[in-house]
Specification:
The structure is a single chain. The chain is α/β, with parallel strands linked by helices and 177 residues long. The chain has one domain. It has nine helices and five strands, in the order αβαββαβαβααααα. The protein has helices at 3-10, 29-35, 68-71, 85-88, 119-129, 133-140, 146-152, 154-162, 166-176, and strands at residues 15-19, 40-42, 53-55, 75-79, 96-98. Strands 2-1-4-3-5 form a five-stranded parallel beta sheet, with helices on one face. The radius of gyration is 15 Å and the shape is globular.
């Protein structure tokens, strides 16, 4: 049947959060995603789905729109403190590690700082880049400042989502940052 595989690739990807509980739970965007059942919690590294995209700010490969085929298997945010990120990401996670291109944070703690995204912002950016804009907007809507993330990064997100390969993406990043 012609539409069945396409339908699978148009379905919103399942979102997972590996909860390391290193942040204040009242300010933790990943915990709120889980609380509102917008993400499934994971508690152990081995629970990360094998084929999923794992967001890793230290990965050697950038997330591109062509990762859409992979992201429908799952998108995983590792919820950890920025202070412990280097140590946390030395762990080898199952799945395919990808880093995001440079974006500005809209969260009140790191407002307008390049690359200092919350888990929510990172997941939303990944969804935008891979063509799931409506799902990204839904996630961002759970915080007052969330929709401002899209406004603040509208041009880079649109350009990143159109990049065909790493070379083009790196050039695009340098044009904005």
């Amino acid at each position: 049947m012609p539409g069945s595989r396409e339908h699978q690739n148009n379905s919103a990807p399942p979102i997972y959060v590996l909860q390391l509980r290193q942040d204040d739970p009242k300010k933790c965007t990943a915990a709120k995603l889980v609380k509102f059942r917008l993400a499934r919690p994971l508690y152990k590294t081995r629970q990360v789905p094998q084929g999923a995209i794992v967001l890793n700010p230290f990965a050697p490969i950038y997330l591109l729109n062509k990762d859409r085929r992979q992201i429908v298997r799952g998108l995983v945010a590792i919820d950890c403190s920025w202070e412990k990120a280097q140590e946390v990401f030395e762990t080898q996670f199952p799945g395919r590690s990808r880093k995001l291109p440079t974006l500005l944070a809209a969260n009140p703690v790191n407002y307008a700082k390049a690359g200092k995204l919350t888990s929510l912002e990172a997941v939303a950016a990944s969804l935008y880049i891979t063509g799931f804009a409506a799902e990204a907007a839904q996630l961002l809507s759970i915080f007052k400042w969330g929709p401002h993330f899209r406004t603040l990064n509208a041009q880079p997100l649109d350009a990143y989502s159109n990049a065909q390969d790493e070379t083009e993406l790196r050039k695009t990043i340098s044009e904005f940052f």
